[in-house]
Amino acid sequence: MKKLLFSVVFICVAQFSFAQDAAFKNDMVKFMELSGQKSTFELLTKDIVDNIPDAKKADFQKELKTSLNGLMEKMAEMYMTEFTHADVKEFIKFYETPAGKKLSSKTNVLFEKGQTIGQEWGMGLQGIMMKYME
Q1: CA dihedral 73, 76, 78, 81 (to 10 degrees)
Q2: Model confidence over 13-26: pLDDT tens digits?
Q3: Direct distance between the N- and C-terminal alpha carbons of the chain, in angstroms, rounded to an integer
Q4: pLDDT by residue (tens digit) across 32-91?
Q5: Greatest pairwise CA separation for the chain in angstroms
Q6: 87-95 CB contacts, 8 Å cutoff, 24+ apart
Q7: Distance between CA atoms of 95 and 32, rounded to whole angstroms?
Q8: What's the rounded Cα separation, in Å, for the pair 14 and 106?
Q9: pTM for this one?
Q10: CA 130, CA 134: separation in Å to the nearest integer?
Q11: Which residue in 28, 30, 35 sits closest to 100, CA to CA?
């Protein structure tokens, strides 16, 4: 009888824990979408999509979307090791404010400008490296 009672309690605790983890993960994915992280990955794959022949583009985009969703799930799990559910709820609150929405809306522009700045920096770094490699 004790074993049966222990088993029932264990199952209830496990289900409660799973429900909490699912809510945490859902909130983490929501944060990643609100913060523009998902859109950054979509921007990174834009050139790849443009190189796919038109006849195959729709099928490719469907698989890409599935792949991107899987990536978001894995990223969410990684973030969950660094932040608490309470932290994530606060992040979401911020991204739902006017300032958070504005920041998120600038993700693509900031990415593109940052990419240009990074390339310029990399070229300058090559010059510095060459000075020390001679």
Answers
A1: -140
A2: 444 444 458 999 99
A3: 79
A4: 999 988 888 888 888 888 889 999 989 999 999 999 989 989 999 999 999 999 999 999
A5: 79
A6: 88/24, 88/27, 88/28, 88/31, 89/27, 91/31, 91/35, 92/27, 92/30, 92/31, 92/34, 95/31, 95/34, 95/35
A7: 10
A8: 41
A9: 0.67
A10: 6
A11: 35
Question: How far, in Å, CA of 16 to CA of 63, rounded?
Answer: 33
The two structure tokens encoding residue 87: 């932290």
Compute the Cα dihedral for 18, 23, 29, 31 and give only its sign. Answer: negative
Tokens of 32: 């990643």
As a residue count, the chain comes to 134
